Amino acid sequence: MNLERDLQDMREYYRSGKTKEASWRKLQLQRLKAFLKEKERDIYRALNQDLGKHHVEAFRDEIGVLQKSINFALQNLKEWMSSKKAKLPAVAVLSYAEIVPEPLGLVLIISSWNFPIGLSLEPLIGAIAAGNTVVLKPSELASASSSLLANALPTYIDSKAIKVIEGGPAVGEHLLQQKWDKIFFTGSTRVGRMVMSAAVKHLTPITLELGGKCPAIIDSLTSSWDKEAAVKRIIVSKYGPCAGQACIAIDYLLVEEKFTSTLVELLKVHIKKMLGENPRKSNSIARIINKHHFSRLKNLLNDPMVKDSIVYGGSVDEANLFIEPTVLVDPPLQAAIMTEEIFGPLLPIITVRII
Questions:
Q1: Class of domain 215-352 (CATH, top level)
Q2: What is the per-residue pLDDT for 349?
């Protein structure tokens, strides 16, 4: 494709005013909803192929969330598009002002691989509802999902205004060299810096949805029922969404030292209840996206400073890109597992003393 020419055509289409029409926005959202319904089995198949996701997880974290987002957008579209009276200071007596919502124009969405359908279409819903033209680049690491979006989605939506472009880092770099009216990126901090650097050249407004170290604090003074509930929520948050390959997953726990052994035992019991005696055979937890990330996580565990801190799990299956849900107690704070975002099914517990 001739990217520069296609982008120019999309800008001209935007200037024609077609995408600003309420009827156009509504139709695109309805067609996107039809895509999710009619291609549901294909989406399940792609997510299973890319990440080993069970269809229940795929619906919970991607398809179901998207359906709710589309319904919400359709219900609120009229209100979002309506102008609102602006409050003015007393000095502006006899004056009148309105806040009029306007689309930005040509939007670039660069998606991530851990929720390859959800994180591609969720920002697309917002961009369409706002009346923009959009270029979507799915992650090449989730190749089955990327291919599905590139080949099936254009048959549902207005391909003059919304395009899906596949490719790796070179394609992403080429896209970032173009002028955009908004960039939405989901991914790593490293690539986020590159996106921000590219956006600066044209003063392009950007949204960066990145990761980090996200701890959870467990209070040992809570009731036994609250402790049980907390442990269940920790397990679901850590191992439920894409086997911990999610920026919203708990990265590590901070726990009062005297409660540590109780917490570890509760984690062991409820991991088995939720994921079975053999999580790999249960098909209820996703796989690691590729060998590169598998090796990265394996190296975190194989660090000599970390090995002795493993109290549960730790087994790996490279052939199936599977890592068992793993719990560690007090790995060295200078180890990579505590200085980098884990992004996988490894849960360190750091003990603290309350004085």
A1: alpha beta
A2: 97
